[in-house]
Structure formats: structure tokens, C-alpha cells
Design brief:
358 residues, alpha/beta, ten-stranded mixed sheet, two-stranded antiparallel sheet, binds 3-isopropylmalic acid, binds magnesium ion
Amino acid sequence: MRRYRIAAMGGDGIGPEVISAGLEALKVCAERDGGFALDVTDFDWGSDYYRKHGVMMPADGADQLRGYDAILFGAVGAPDIPDHVTLWGLRLAICQPLDQYANVRPTRVLPGITSPLRNVSGPELDWVIVRENSEGEYSGVGGRAHKGLPIEVAQDVSVMTRAGVQRIMRYAFKLAQSRPRKFLTVVTKSNAQRHAMVMWDEIAAEVAREFPDVTWDKMLVDAMTMRMVIKPGSLDTIVASNLHADILSDLAAALAGSLGIAPTANINPERDAPSMFEPIHGSAFDITGKGIANPVATFWTAAMMLDHLGEPAAAQRLMKAVERVTADPRLHTPDLGGQATTRQVTDAVCEALRQAND
Ligand code: IPM
Ligand code: MG
């Protein structure tokens, strides 16, 4: 029996609700498979922990996670604590030391879900966005001086390193190569940002030579938003800087029908530390505790985790079960215009997993 140690962290808002739904589905998935088991350890880090201890997680938090095979993460963010405190105190405090430098965000229009774009269904919109996850606009470099005075100054410095750009480009080209279309779009803004983004473009062209079978093109980020809306079928794998991909991935999720289904993986490709898997939607305080959060993003996230752990058959079975459920509009949660609850969707996915006949 293959055993995987999973660190589960619900975090804030609807995070604990969707993570508990995800763990239920994963348990059924493992039983159905028979070849592996998950040993889950719960971590109570997040905003409640902050209210008690003044920090989002213990100082050695990232090190405590090193021994696990993967981290399943819910959401972070609370109305009464500044966002930059919760984010830098937990999510980035885990991603950065564990060097999860590739953030992978697949987008597809799942069966039964309507894209806001006319005439778009499954095959026209099937993308993976690769987000640089360790530097760029999120480097944390910068500062403020003369606080509160009329001469106050504030800087956020975007930092790009040759090594950092090279490794994310290699990851993206490799991922593009593994997909049927073997096609990568490199997002840039080198017309206006004439130092780092120019180096970004140069390194993209250098790395491209290592992948002669991958076709690629380059797109300015502003024009990219138009292309995503007007010609979604012309895109496949996409690589972008930390901030550009942050913005583009919200657009992608909306075009695929709802932020409630969008998954993400923070990957350490060298596997010298665990990777972290999370739904993109965030803590969603407006619906916390109501039992109506869409668990589909977490199920898809869990499938990405299984894939990463080396259980692709189980990952596929889980995605098929999810697709059988999304195909039925009676099982849509309110973010998709339906009335189903988290409980109903979770039960339906678990049932579909039990019935899977492969
Ligand atoms: C995301 C989120 C985060 C980000 C927020 C919560 C800071 O929007 O994962 O896309 O900007 O990275
Ligand atoms: Mg975002």
C-alpha cells in the first residue's frame, strides 16, 4: 500500500468547509482505488490562530511542513486583519521557503457549466496558466519612508532573476510539450517595462531553443486580456509573471464559468519540499458558514494533488466524478446559478466515485 502524508490546512472563511469536503472525496477516492492511503494531519493555522497568538503560524511553520508529501490548503484572509498580514504571514510564508516557484492554474469549461462567452464550451477553452510564484512583483522588496509626512515615499520593487525566469520558462515549456497542442504563449510587458521584462523575453527565446517541438508566441499582457475573450481557442499553455498571471487567472476563471471551480497547485518541481494545492477562490466571508460554498475547486485541486503524488488513475477518476456531477444543473451551487449545497455536491461526487466502473 502506498501511503502519503498530507498536511491539511483549512485556514479562513469557507476554507475549512471546502477542505473537509475535499478530504471526504479523497478518502473515497483512496478506498475506491485500493492501492494507496492518505495519512492526514490537520493544522489550525490562519486568522483564528493569529487572534490567539499574534502570528498566522508558528515561526518554524514552513519547516514543520517539510516532512509531508503534500499540503492541501483552503483559504486565507479575514475582514478584521489587513490582507497583506494574512497573506505574507501564511500563504507566502509557506510558498517562498518551500520554493514552490511554479503556480499552475488549469482552466476548462466543465460539462454542464456555461461560459459567459457566447459559443464557448469545452474544447474552445482549455488552458493552463503557469504563474511565476517566487519573485517578480511579489518579491516583497521595497519600503516606505517619511511615513505620514507630505514627502512620504513608498516602493514595491519587482525583482526578476535570470535563474528565476529560466526555471519558470523551462517548467512552462515542458508543460506545453506534455499537452497535445505543444503550444505556449509567453505573456510580457516589455514595451513599457524595459529592464526585467526585456530579460524575461530574452530568456524565453533562449529556453525555447531547448524545446524545438514546442511552438510559442509572445503577447503583451493588455492585448492578452482581449485575446482570452475574443479568441479563446487560440491559446493553450500560458506563462506569465507573478502579478500578470494573478490577474489573468481571475479572468480565466470567470470565462470558465465561476471562480468556485478554479483550482491551483503551488509546485516545487524539484520535489525537495512539498507542493501545496489550493482552490483559487479565497475565504469568501459573505457565504462562510452557510453550507453553500462550491467544493468543485477543491475537488479539482485534490485531483491535481493526486497527480503530483503519482496517482494519475485516481486523479482521473476523481475528475470524471466531478464532471458527472457538474453536468447536472440540479447539483450546481449558487455561484453557478443553482441551489445545491456543499453537502449535496460532495455526496454526489463521492457516490459517482463509488460507482466508477474503470
Ligand atoms: C491568488 C490570490 C492571491 C494572490 C491573493 C489572496 C493575495 O489572488 O492566489 O490569485 O494575489 O496571489
Ligand atoms: Mg488572484
